[in-house]
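Appendix B. Worked example

We walk through a single record from start to finish. Start with the input: the chain for MFS transporter, Burkholderia territorii, length 195.
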Amino acid sequence: MRDSRYRWVIVAAGGLMGCIAIGAMFSLPVFLRAIARDTGWSMTGISAAMTLGFIAMAFASIGWGSLSDRIGTRAVVVSGAVLLSASLALASRAPSLLAFQLIFGLAVGSATAAVFAPMMACVTGWFDTHRSLAVSLVSAGMGMAPMTMSPLAAWLVSGHGWRTSMLLIAALAAAVMIPASLLVRRAPALDAPPA
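Next comes the structure step. The output line below is what the pipeline stores for this chain.
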């Protein structure tokens, strides 16, 4: 396979982006008390943003997957990285519970979906052998999210408050995910002429 060593760069980029994206979304429980204390919003209302996020992820995955087939994975994951960073920054400044629910729930959930399915499809296209290992490694990166992003969020919240902490996570997402998404290339197998 052409560029066979580069396929591991794709795996690393997918795992890293998945860790940040899933981690940003799944770190909301760490923010709950701080948000409720600062704003007076109910913890149930704040938690509803996570439920909306899962619903948005489910529906957005279909759209992002279809778009990835048409315009390529790189464009989709770059868009997802930008959307995730922007939506986290906007959520950190949400003036009301409804605004927070819509921004964090719908936008963060949709942005997270731009990474998961498109990167899994991209990775499988790069591998004739070791395909299961490659997909497992990308999944492992995503699985590391709660063990990395949640402690980071907790540490940030303890010293900076929830709004600044969420803004810092938005900056981290931009600083890591945008460059990582630019490493994504179309699988050589997809460029080959049909047999």
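Two observations about the output. The chain is about 85% helix and 0% strand. The helical segments are 6-26, 28-39, 43-71, 73-91, 97-126, 131-143, 145-182, 188-191.
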